[in-house]
Design goal:
The complex is a heterodimer of chains A (96) and B (285). Helices cover 27% and strands 15% of the residues of chain A. Chain A is an alpha+beta fold and 96 residues long. Classes of the chains: A alpha+beta (96), B alpha+beta (285).
């Protein structure tokens, strides 16, 4: 159910996705169970068992997975900077 | 004093925060009429606790955001009166927890702080804000998808963000909440964590958490400004968000700081209804 645009801006132009801190992640995989947008992917056979596979599926401004992360291993970009960037892109595109 | 509660700690021996939740539960129940529900025992043999769980107000103490105790409460259909998340309390009080399970100086300090706060909260009388906006009956458009009905207010003074939250703007204030799309996706809402009155919120900042047995979502504010009122009824009846997330289950009122700028990234009824329709069709096949 991922949208291709957010506020009229192409989703892939917006930097909003979780970053996994592998020094904290204990591979409990609660985030993959929780996120309905298939942002994460589990690779049981790899050394790094969890990756952000589909960053553009991540709902802009949603940080719900970080709130349910027991070891506090997920972080997101600065919200105000993202808001500002969306406004800039909209302006650029309207002027272009 | 916190009296006559049932106390459900996570009791987790996976992290220090779990050991703290256990210690707080013990201290809350020593020499009082509060009673601990042991989560391990409760999961395998609930008969022992069903009576107190059903009859008493419930305090849930989660150690970490995995929220095992909350999930157990949801599994057992328990209504939660108060919730504590130890790792969040530690952050709020700038206390670093150790990586082991033993309780040392920092952990004991946090335990004292939380116990004091619990007692103060319990004694606090609820103040009803006189600043609350008057009630309004919205004019709705309805979308039916299978057995689910999604209503969306059509009123021109209601704005939406693409995170499925609404703002009813009147003068320099806005009442905000989530749309039917959020509450239908969450299913039965069990707990609402309100924002602090007086908190300054950025546009797209978080204004409270809504939790169901399925998930936890933050309300992402469509507007920026200061929280001047919260819907106090939600603390006792969070299920009102399911019943009607607009007139009854609104979340907070905001004194607007820059609505002209906020408006750039908001949409009106027409666009939101179309967007929600796509999401509904996408999420339910």
């Amino acid at each position: 159910m991922s949208e291709t645009t957010f506020m009229g801006v192409e989703r892939n132009k917006i930097d909003w996705k979780p970053t996994i801190d592998y020094t904290k992640c204990d591979y409990c995989m609660e985030c993959t169970k929780f996120c309905p947008h298939k942002v994460f992917e589990v690779n049981d056979t790899e050394e790094i068992k969890l990756i952000v596979k589909n960053p553009n599926n991540c709902v802009v401004f949603c940080r719900a997975c970080s709130k349910i992360c027991g070891p506090d291993a997920l972080s997101f970009p600065d919200k105000n900077a993202t808001t500002q960037r969306i406004k800039e892109i909209r302006k650029e595109e309207n002027n272009g | 004093m916190v009296e006559n509660y049932a106390v459900l700690p996570c009791n987790g021996l996976d992290k220090c925060a779990g050991a703290i939740s256990r210690e707080i539960a013990i201290k809350l129940c020593e020499n009082t009429k509060n009673e601990i529900i042991c989560p391990v025992f409760y999961r395998v043999a609930d008969a022992k606790y069903n009576k107190i769980a059903a009859e008493r107000p419930l305090i849930v103490i989660d150690g970490c955001p995995t929220r095992c105790a909350s999930k157990l409460a949801a599994e057992k259909n328990l209504k939660i009166s108060q919730k504590i998340l130890i790792t969040e309390e530690a952050k709020n009080h700038n206390i670093e927890l150790n990586s082991g399970l033993s309780l040392q100086e920092n952990e004991n300090a946090l335990i004292e702080i939380i116990l004091n706060e619990l007692n103060i909260t319990d004694e606090k009388t609820v103040q009803v804000s006189d600043k609350t906006l008057v009630s309004i009956n919205f004019d709705y458009e309805t979308l039916q998808h299978g057995k689910f009905i999604f209503r969306v207010p059509k009123n021109p003074e209601v704005y939406y963000n693409e995170n499925d939250c609404w703002a009813w703007v009147t003068g320099n204030r806005a009442r905000i909440g989530v749309t039917d799309f959020v509450q239908q996706n969450l299913s039965d809402i069990l707990y609402f964590t309100p924002p602090e009155i007086g908190a300054e919120i950025d546009q797209f900042g978080e204004v409270g958490d809504i939790e169901s047995s399925k998930a936890l979502v933050a309300l992402i504010s469509p507007v920026s400004g200061k929280v001047i009122a919260i819907n106090e009824m939600l603390e006792q009846k969070p299920e009102m968000i399911n019943e009607n997330p607009y007139e009854l289950g609104w979340v907070a009122e905001i004194e607007l700081s820059d609505f002209e700028s906020d408006k750039e990234l908001l949409i009106g009824f027409d666009k939101y209804f179309e967007l929600m329709k796509k999401k509904v069709e996408g999420s339910n096949g």
